[in-house]
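STRUCTURE REQUEST FORM
Protein name: Ubiquitin-like protease family profile domain-containing protein
Source organism: Paramecium tetraurelia
Requested output: structure tokens
Priority: standard
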Amino acid sequence: MNGIAYPFDLLQNEEKLHLFQNIKAKIYGQNDAQISLEPIPGSLFITNIRICWFNFPKKMEELSPQERQLVEAIQVKHGQKKELWQSLNLNGKSFMFIYPRLLSHGLQGNKLRCFIGELEAEEDVYIQQSKSTGLEDFLEQDNPVNIVDLERGKYQIEFDLQLLDKETQDEIFDLVTEYSINQQDSSDSEQIYINKLINQQLENKSKMIDEGINIQAKIYGRPSQIRKPLFKIIKRVHPDQQCKRLLLRPNGNIIINNVDQGEFVILRDSKLFVNCQNFISIPKDFEYSDWTVYEGGIDGFHFLPYGKGVFKNKADRFEGYFADGFASELCTLERTQNSSKIKCYYSWGQKHGKYEEENNNLIIEGFFENDLKQGLFTEKQKSTDKQERKYYKNGVKQIVDESNYNNQQRKLGTTTRYLFNHQDYSINNFTFKGLNYKEWLNQLIIDYYLQLVIDYYKDFLAESIYHLNTIECQDIFSSYITQKDQKPLILPKLLEINCLISDIKKLIFIMNVDRGHFLVLVCQNQQLFLLNSLNNDQDQIILQKVVKIIPTINKAQNHSEKLKIVEVTQQQNSFDCGIHAVYNTLLQYKYCDKNVNEIDYQTTKKMMENLRIHIKNVLINDYAHLLPQISDSKQNHRY
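Status: completed
Returned output:
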């Protein structure tokens, strides 16, 4: 074994072994947790079959001075030693993946980034697993010997090679490139590995059943299976010169663009390989396939098409202008299957304006409104010049009296398109624009995102926090809470809350005050706290109005002493109140057991900009974790 120590057995035909130490790792899971394995570096084990990362358990006294200093600094900042001990990976962890799962990898500076994609199996081959992704197993892992195989789901993994010299970094990149290409070009080693896994799992199952242990076998596939084609890109990136940069997005998309050093708002001349399902920027009429590529400008914040660009695959080609990630203005769609060419005006990715189509047999002209046929459509036969006239209203064909039909085109209004839905919330294009910088955040966006946060925490904080969103607060206090004649309505929900108030750790109100400003109130320990990013004379008025619905505080002697205004970061503009309100609400969930007035609310303008970007990325399903990691600190903690 050449003196190599690692906590797992070799696989069959795993004959080329390479071990590199002092490497940290981060995993970004699709729609799942982001895990940073710091400050303890681990070992990267590269073979001709797979890539593994592991480290062994350590006690505090075994840490190096630098590691111990980092642990203590984070513990002091957060004050949650038990939780931090686990997240800092002192218990030891390990994970692995095979090369057929490696969609792309690149060396950028000191970071080796790998994107791991789906390894699909035939429906009649595998036995259903109890967990949706390997990341859940990884979170629960307390022994590196039980190596977690990231055999399902999508991940971006970042190996930090900064403690290694440049020659060793290049060696690691070259090894991964060589073995992944060999696996891609030849199916023999993959077949051997799959056969080995099947036999190994069946043997383990038989052995464990003999011992009286009930398990579920994980069978990955068979040699004859047909896999969905996936883009695979290998790129070495030199950040100190002009070059092509490889970007691996959490939703699975892969982007290559020409850049110089520095950050750019618009990425010019880029190529985006669409690996995710239901990519929001694909126009409605473009037929999505496994080999869809976009070429053109890309928004450098949200990585959506921007400016002139082209979507294309083996069957269709869509060319036009994109704004906010959606097709806009005059666009052209060419389909090879029926040799058709369509010219139409688009707005927010759907047809909205004059329409022309030409194919082998027909020339069609008409008009669309909100992606629905509207008014007269003419179909002219190329061979005979015969013309047929059809009439539509909201996409439905109509029978009309042509002699009395007024074909005058009405003035086209702004298109409306619903983009996202969750429970009772629906977000349209007008609301969505509120996530752009310098725009005022709509309360639907705030309630939509925070409902996702509530759903995320409901399993372990369901009875600890009660949340009243902006709509519920308006129902209780009206839209103009500061007006003297406004009195709160005691709704059935409030009666329920007051019955449970003694068992609730925090009762959160997120409020749109007088339809012009967002702020947060929190009831905790018989006290009512106000968190306002733009403090003013109305703060006391709001506290006095809200306390009236909480009898346990309102009826207490000297209840005014129980009304507190918490010092929070003050916004420096007129449009970030919604972002600050979301941030201050997130901290209540993160520090559920902390007193409201003991939480650190300090933030920066840059952090608020990043949070705005993060919320938009959550809506377009391009994020590693629902909760943002936006801290200016280099320490590993979220928001």
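Reviewer notes: The chain has a mean pLDDT of 77. The chain has four domains: 17-57+92-210, 238-349, 351-415, 419-619.
Form closed.
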